[in-house]
Amino acid sequence: MTSESAIGSLLIDRPQDGIFEVARRAFTDPEIFALEQKYIFEALWTFVGLETQIPRANDFLTTHIGSQPVLLTRKSDGSVGCFLNTCRHRGTIVCPFKHGRQKFHVCRYHGWAYDSDGRNTAVTEEADGQYPESFRDKNRDLIPVARLESYRGLIFASLSPSVPPLEEYLGQAAHFIDLIVDQSPVGQVEFVPGASSYTFDANWKLQFENGLDYYHFNSTHSSYVDILKNRAVSSNADLPREDSAERVGQGSFSFPHGHAVNWSIKQVSAYGRPLSNDQENLNRLTEQFGRDRVKWMLRQRNLTIFPSLQLIDISSSQLRTWRPLAPDKTEMTSHCIAPVGESAESRRMRIRGYEDFFNPSGLATSDDNVMYEYCQTGYVAEAGNTLGYLRGLGSDPVHDGPHANEVGITPDEYAFGAPTFGGETNFHAGYREWHRLLLNAGQKI
After folding, report:
1. d(C-alpha 215, C-alpha 212), whole Å
2. pTM score > 0.85 for this model?
3. How far is C-alpha 34 from the geometric centre of its chain's CA atoms?
4. Is residue 239 left, alpha or beta, with left meaning phi > 0 and alpha meaning psi from -120 to 50?
5. What is the 8-class DSSP label of residue 40?
6. How far is the C-alpha of 7 from the C-alpha of 371, rounded, in Å?
7. Number of CB atoms found within 10 A of residue 308's CB
8. Tens digit of pLDDT for each residue in 89-127?
9. By the 8 A CB rule, do 116 and 57 touch?
10. What is the side-by-side order of every strand in the sheet holding 300-305?
11. Is the dihedral of CA 389, 391, 392, 394 positive or negative?
């Protein structure tokens, strides 16, 4: 059993001394993995779907919170319900499908039925079952999750009743969800049909880090960088550009509860962004939200909501989630997320950009997966803690500045540097939250 002192040694956090280290066994130890499942993935808010995925009564989808299967449904009264996807009779998965629409979910094993409100509506051959009297009084409905809330159409659920309200949990990181949703004329986002799921043989924290890791881009994705250079020569010069007075560079904001966002400022033609290709929508957004907010909608942003959600808005837009399966195996699910009501040309551009970069068959995802597995293999070496969390630690902590002011936020930490800066202090918020939760777990075991 992992002791409290063993958990304490997983993270050495002394920024005043220029030290921030994560122990290698955090990526390999089965006991740490078990604690993460129970006290992080099944104890925090988890993204489970979009409101637009289940618009009609009886629409449903299935997913997981940590290791536990759940069924997300649009109930008969139009509200959203989320239940543990397990029959009350023998524990069979009630709904084995990814998504669909049906009023009743019937267990394949013995035929117990449940409606979209989670109510048990039928017990097969109940009258002939010679059940004891106590059976009539037992609750046989599907078990609802402890908490279920939605923010701007993104639905989150938790198995713990003690999580803070969702908006409090998201805090100022929610501003970066708004920057995507507000691009829609009707204030909604949807998934482009065609999700992809795959696994990689490495720990989930490698994906958590990668979404905040600008430093790896030029080396890991060198082939893609070469393609981008060639495209830049023949790019459409008519697309809008950043104001030439803006200082190019790369930065990050970090927030409570482990959330963080990476962003960059480039003097290129708005990166071929779908939004930049729709002048009518740009004019509407500028009138509604102002120039600074639209400027941030056009900038590259990688948002991580701890522990398992990333929203990326660059040449296309991606929502990806991950589910740890073992210390060295993780399942990734990736969607192209898009504003409802964008122009057909913007949608075409978004899909092509997604296929180009994010799709598993694209020019980036496979590069990252190989690096995760190289790291997982390397972490077995008894070579001490790595030096992978120090870029940016030589600067004094900053909590506000012109970029934060433009967005209207006061992050816990604010970093900005040259385009090749690749700061790593934006990992710290997530690791501090991870460690805090594991230390709390250590006091309970």
Report:
1. 9
2. yes
3. 21
4. beta
5. I
6. 26
7. 25
8. 999 999 999 999 999 999 999 999 999 999 999 999 999
9. yes
10. 189-200, 329-339, 317-326, 309-313, 300-305, 260-265, 249-254, 413-417
11. positive
